[in-house]
């Protein structure tokens, strides 16, 4: 079913909107949650929470890109769940691995999370930076650092070897650091 039709079902408060969302996007959303939470049951719970959030948000919201909007809801929910569980015990995940790779870009002394920097400005700068990358490098970067995809998954998605993926991500991180410095970020 077309996304516009699914959104119309939400606007009409038709419960089949959730069923149609599940049919079309469950695997995609589950993959995002699983990459962060590394646990099947928690990932299923997170995706179920995404459906509830979508139901409660549409209307008044009318997402222009339903898949990206649902993906962001799932990612944010999974990160919140991860933080809750991580405070109780150590949890392995691609999310933490991908964050550790970005430490070379954002040093510990100037961690934006700890210093409450202007997230909108940083988001805009990163989005502008992503626009400077070629399509494959941008997709690899977003896959790794937004969706927390493993290196192995990225290799499979793009038909690349592990070293090629790692090299592309390394070059993109270096470019991001230079870009942010040039834009006035104190890294």
Number of domains as seen in the coordinates: 2
Name the overall outline. globular
Question: How would you spell out the order of helices and strands?
Answer: HHHHHHHHHH
Query: Beta-strand percentage?
Result: under 5%
What's the helix count? 10
Q: What is the terminal separation in angstroms?
A: 45 Å
Q: Return the CATH topology of the largest domain.
A: Arc Repressor Mutant, subunit A
Q: Indicate the structural class.
A: mainly alpha
Mean pLDDT: 87
CATH-scheme architecture of the largest domain: Orthogonal Bundle
- The CATH fourth-level homologous superfamily of the largest domain: Winged helix-like DNA-binding domain superfamily/Winged helix DNA-binding domain
Explained architecture:
This protein has 187 residues and is an all-alpha fold. It has 2 domains: 84 residues, Orthogonal Bundle (Rna Polymerase Sigma Factor, Chain: A); 89 residues, Arc Repressor Mutant, subunit A. It has 10 helices and no strands. The longest helix has 22 residues. The protein is globular and about 50 Å long. About 4% of the residues have low confidence.
Descriptors for this entry?
single chain; 0% strand; 10 helices; Arc Repressor Mutant, subunit A; Rna Polymerase Sigma Factor, Chain: A; 2 domains; mainly alpha; 187 residues
């Amino acid at each position: 079913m077309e996304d516009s039709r699914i959104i119309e079902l939400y606007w009409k408060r038709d419960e089949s909107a959730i069923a149609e969302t599940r049919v079309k996007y469950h695997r995609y959303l589950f993959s995002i949650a699983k990459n962060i939470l590394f646990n099947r049951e928690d990932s299923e719970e997170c995706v179920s929470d995404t459906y509830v959030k979508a139901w409660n948000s549409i209307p008044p919201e009318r997402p222009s890109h339903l898949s990206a909007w649902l993906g962001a809801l799932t990612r944010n929910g999974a990160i919140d769940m991860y933080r809750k569980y991580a405070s109780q015990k150590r949890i392995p995940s691609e999310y933490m691995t991908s964050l550790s790779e970005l430490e070379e870009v954002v040093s510990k002394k100037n961690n934006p999370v700890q210093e409450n920097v202007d997230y909108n400005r940083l988001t805009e700068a990163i989005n502008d930076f992503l626009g400077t990358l070629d399509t494959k490098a941008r997709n690899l970067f977003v896959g790794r650092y937004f969706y927390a995809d493993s290196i192995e998954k990225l290799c499979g998605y793009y038909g690349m070897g592990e070293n090629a993926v790692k090299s592309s991500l390394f070059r993109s991180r270096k470019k991001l650091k230079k870009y942010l410095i040039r834009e006035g970020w104190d890294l």
